[in-house]
Amino acid sequence: MLPNRAVIAMQALAGARPESRRASPGHGQGLVEYGLILSLMVVVAAVILVVFGGTLAEVLSVIGSAIDGPS
Hints:
With 71 residues, the protein is mainly α. The protein has a domain of 47 residues. Helices cover 72% and strands 0% of the residues.
């Protein structure tokens, strides 16, 4: 049997991860949480656009007219 350091070196050369660097079961939890936050933000933005869409269009139209008017 090979000494422990030799086994680790061979695994490193083969691209295998040592036992201490393997992903834990909760490793992807942060990514899932970011995905949930992002999807919640998309839903909130869509609701805001539906509720305030007409008013927002009028405000942007007034701003556009004010920019185009003087020049």
